[in-house]
Amino acid sequence: MKKVNVGIIGFGTVGSGVVKILQDRASLLFQRTGAQIKIKRICDQDLKKKRQVKVNKNILTRDAWKIINDPEIDVVVELIGGIHPAKEFIIAAIKNGKHIVTANKALLAAQGREIFNAAKKYGVDIYFEASAVAGVPIVKALREGFAADRISAVLGIVNGTCNFILSKMTKEGIGFSQALKDAQLKGYAEKNPALDINGTDSAHKLVLLNLLSFGSFVKIKDIYVEGIVDINSNDISYADEFGYVIKLLAIAKMSHGALEVRVAPTLLSKNHLLANVCGVYNAVLVEADMAGPVLFNGKGAGSYAAASAVVSDIADVARNINSSSSRRVAEYCPQAAGLKLRKIGDIESKYYIRFSAIDSPGVLAKISGILGSHGISIASVAQRERRLTKVVPVIIMTHEAKENNLRNALKEIDRLSVIKSKSVAIRVER
Amino acid sequence: MKKVNVGIIGFGTVGSGVVKILQDRASLLFQRTGAQIKIKRICDQDLKKKRQVKVNKNILTRDAWKIINDPEIDVVVELIGGIHPAKEFIIAAIKNGKHIVTANKALLAAQGREIFNAAKKYGVDIYFEASAVAGVPIVKALREGFAADRISAVLGIVNGTCNFILSKMTKEGIGFSQALKDAQLKGYAEKNPALDINGTDSAHKLVLLNLLSFGSFVKIKDIYVEGIVDINSNDISYADEFGYVIKLLAIAKMSHGALEVRVAPTLLSKNHLLANVCGVYNAVLVEADMAGPVLFNGKGAGSYAAASAVVSDIADVARNINSSSSRRVAEYCPQAAGLKLRKIGDIESKYYIRFSAIDSPGVLAKISGILGSHGISIASVAQRERRLTKVVPVIIMTHEAKENNLRNALKEIDRLSVIKSKSVAIRVER
User: What is the reported pTM?
Assistant: First the structure.
């Protein structure tokens, strides 16, 4: 039986949850890991704030280096978020031979390669379950499970704020800004919700899901990202009539030998495994060639869900220390050759398109003519209202088409005098 | 880098899948485990059968002891199923210091305690992902993940045959026997489907889910089991009107300090995370107190889904061998004190009840009077048809009631002259 000394940097809500679990469940964790996990030191800038958990004042410090440089500490838990100084702390801790547990998706998405390389070089473990989808144990599954499988796609609803907003718009027929206000009132959206609703948070998580699924590091700037700000409640209800829901999806998939990685609102058939993931729930669908499709669905946020993931990681590090098996699993399985990233213009997809057109004879012929001339064939059309000489929505579902062809067609169509505002196109995922 | 020699007992469909994956993905598995996994020997009674995979004839044998007693073999993979001689093979292999990977749910459900104790005594690992829900990686999640959590309930749709049948009855409004025939035609049900449709297969899996969630071994004979044979398409459609679906659930949950473990058709609200798991899909919902509810959803059967789970286990054993960390995780975390099992009569549940009653004034008053005298209060009532002096269905949804009280009330009600056939009661899960 070994003692495992933990130092925690960041004593906010998640940090407090981690401390509470480590305190309350010490004997359970001992049963489960064979190691005695002890909190040696906790660092935070604010030591006076009221917290939901009591700790011995002697273990508190405002100086992270007292943790990083403490030779008795085995595991450094980084919970301060952001790139700096989190990165410097982690790299220094790795160089001091400490194992790392982190919940910092922004950091790993931006600088993961350097951090993982350092961990490999210095022979320490780095665990990051809480950096992906908190209560959904997808990192462990992708990193250690599915050993027999090649993954063809990983699709995630990985932002609870966006999923809450879209679910509410769908259920209640309200607009985006009303749904956002409700999310803010309920505490599901920040006062400044930009990082969530513009898709950035989803993109951070997608970098990690992609890495774990395909062994390839994609830079955030290379990920095509659309947020949900422009999603219109009309589009949600038209999609519904065609048998679809609209979800903000983080997608990484292999297609014709290249990798497609994007975050975008997407139409999903109501039968799709992800279609019924509603409210603040998150889910990740892994398409594995042997195991088949596997869906993981749970809470993507919440201090205890994140703390659970962090402590689960600490338990794994403790097991490794206890059985002297650090580096038993790599952070991710590198591929022999780098995978090529497909540009968004080169992808092929089915599309939902909404045109705002003057209702006059021949309009549909014009639209479909231009689509056809760009090689886009129509699967179905719906024009719900008839108001001659007024603007009405015309909905078209296409067959598979190349994105660049679609964009060119829409440019041409939007120049027609009968088209009264910018056409809306949303990709459809099988 | 170490070599890991594998011996496979049972070269049927799953065995062939395992061999194929190990052959085709040797280098991928090396990348993922750091070990070279080699098939040293394969045993089967029938060596002449055409198989989808080619192997060197020299490694084939009809004598399992050539694997069990081979000092060069590190891992014995048991895929013959059944209790005997699988148990003798496994115990002997454990005594010879071999690690075990098995897909044998019936054996582990019946004799798991002895097998796990032997593994512990002889310091070997035993992995059994394919014994639970095949393509759904729930064993790894419960055994290694959720280290911070106490689980309050685990609910599973763990039999694809039953879920296919119930889904088909729900979607198409057809009866049980028609749906069973369709399942047999599609290869989703055996010619003799008893083990599936009477709930036995679900009960085997539930023994393992319960063990992993609560650390307590429950004997199969102590599990209350109802199959789906008596499910009536009318009940499915009445449930639908009340906002529910009917699923065959395997349930293990803590309630008032005791454990409830049962397999039974159950009403689930259409919003329930398990309600949309349809067709041959399986799913397990884990209610964890920190992580929150987590749903795992995937293919519960199919030779490659099972083979994927087996190879994933072999990979874990290989990692343990490679890093000299066998017994890094226990099979399950034992609880300090044995949990008491609640008898089915003592559980409390909401119920859906269908009475077949003569439509005459005062019938409802009689029924509700008897229910009330047994302490059962009514949440809602529906009588859809009015056919005076004819038999009509009366549907009652109750509030929480004790099962014994309900049974006594139904006995009394069924003796009424206005009741024309045995009343049907189905539990409702929140």
Answer: 0.96
